[in-house]
Design brief:
By secondary structure, this protein is mainly alpha-helical. It is built from twelve helices and three strands.
Length: 298
């Protein structure tokens, strides 16, 4: 295979690729070093492909013409599922820091078995309080006492606690896949803003529901699922398969049944999942609508 052209990683080439194939020119597109690479068996059409790509990048009318031609050719289903962006540490440094910290915490706590580090990361440390936290009022009084002593990190630190290998592997994979594309495309500030909002909402909801002993990046992951689902409505090149969204909702509902405990997976942090998803949907709706208002009308 010969490399004939390359394009920015954030550019959606799905329609251009379909159009080129419609012209009878076989090729494939891959990602390398933060760029999309167009490969062909030979360099026979290299000059033509480079010219077409340049027009696709610089001429909105040309892109629209391609989309219309594809629509006329195949009006039923033009869309090709976008491959997920494999974010590198340079593209998504915060994501990699989150993954690294989660792995270190998992090792130091023996996947949540106990110890001082585990207690330091729980949303409330019951051993620092002189009363029980069985009621909703007790739980929020306990949290307020933690915050009064300056332990503000406890609002977010439960995200880095995991209690099984499956738990941490799934969360880190989804964080890298969905969070990676968010940070790479919109920047670290955008990802951190969303993650902190979702983390705060889901952790407080879980404290109110079951008490202090919970953890995991699942709330943030569900927030990313909701956010990316909304984001894909306005940017079709975003990786968020509808099948993944449906599976996540089904898994959320299963968490409210005894099935996970019967299967030996333990009790799910259902409120963190539910409110993570809701807050991610809300954040996506707010940011995409605010962003749309900044674009002047033609």
């Amino acid at each position: 295979m010969k490399q004939v052209a390359d394009a920015p990683i954030e550019l959606d080439l799905s329609q251009l690729s379909q159009w080129i194939r419609m012209k009878g020119i076989p090729h494939r597109i891959s990602e390398s070093d933060g760029r999309q690479i167009i490969w062909m068996e030979s360099g026979q059409f290299q000059e033509q492909i480079q010219q077409v790509l340049q027009r696709y990048i610089t001429e909105p009318e040309f892109r629209s013409a391609i989309a219309e031609q594809l629509e006329r050719t195949n009006p039923v289903n033009v869309h090709v599922e976008t491959a997920y962006l494999r974010a590198t540490p340079l593209q998504a440094p915060v994501i990699y820091i989150f993954i690294f910290v989660s792995l270190i915490v998992a090792y130091l706590t023996s996947l949540g078995e106990g110890g001082d580090i585990l207690r330091a990361l729980l949303i409330v440390d019951p051993f620092q309080l002189d009363f029980r936290m069985e009621t909703l009022t007790d739980r929020f009084v306990g949290l307020s006492r933690m915050l009064e002593t300056g332990q503000v990190w406890r609002l977010f630190s439960p995200d880095f606690l995991h209690f099984s290998l499956l738990h941490i592997v799934f969360n880190m994979l989804m964080l890298w896949t969905l969070g990676g594309q968010l940070e790479a495309r919109k920047g670290s500030v955008s990802f951190l803003s969303m993650a902190l909002f979702v983390s705060l909402t889901s952790n407080i909801a879980q404290l109110a529901d079951t008490g202090y002993f919970f953890g995991g990046m699942s709330g943030v992951v569900y927030g990313l699922i909701g956010y990316c689902w909304v984001w894909r409505r306005v940017s079709p090149d975003i990786f968020m398969p509808d099948a993944l969204f449906r599976f996540s909702v089904v898994w959320l509902m299963i968490g409210y049944t005894p099935l996970t405990e019967w299967a030996g997976l333990g009790r799910m942090a259902n409120s963190a999942h539910l409110y993570g998803l809701i807050s991610g949907l809300l954040w996506g709706w707010l940011t995409t609508n605010l962003g749309a208002k900044k674009i002047p009308s033609a």
